[in-house]
Amino acid sequence: LGEASGRPVEKLNVAALGNVTPQLHVHVVGRRADDPAWPDPVWGRGGVLTYAPEDLAAAVVAARGAFGPI
């Protein structure tokens, strides 16, 4: 399975969710047994996590690399 952050995932969840937005949007979530929400859903758990600007930029670069050019 994918490893955009350099950490391979054990399970890949893909879901089309959203009752409020008019367009289709798909969530792709890599899961690992050591993530804080495992094995429960990732939504509605814990508080908001704010990324430092440099960490957010690195995550965007990694995601773009994993999915290819848009």
Description of the molecule:
The chain is of the alpha+beta class. It has one domain: HIT-like (HIT family, subunit A), CATH 3.30.428. The chain is built from one helix and two strands.
What topology emerges from the helices and strands here?
Layout: E1 11-16, E2 26-31, H1 53-67
Antiparallel strand pairs: 1-2
The spatial strand order of the largest sheet comes to: 1-2
- The helix/strand class is alpha+beta
Order of helices and strands: EEH
- Determine the N-to-C terminus distance: 21 Å
> How much beta, percentage-wise?
15-25%
Quick one: overall form?
globular
Number of domains: 1
Kindly state the percentage of residues in helix: 10-25%
Quickly count the helices: 1
The CATH homologous superfamily is called: HIT-like
> How many beta-strand segments?
2
Low-pLDDT segments: none
> What's the architecture, going by CATH?
2-Layer Sandwich
Gyration radius, rounded: 13 Å
CATH class label: Alpha Beta
Q: Describe the main β-sheet briefly.
A: 2 strands, antiparallel
What do the pLDDT scores average to? 80
Summarize the structure.
This protein is of the alpha+beta class and 70 residues long. It has one helix at residues 53-67, and strands at 11-16, 26-31.
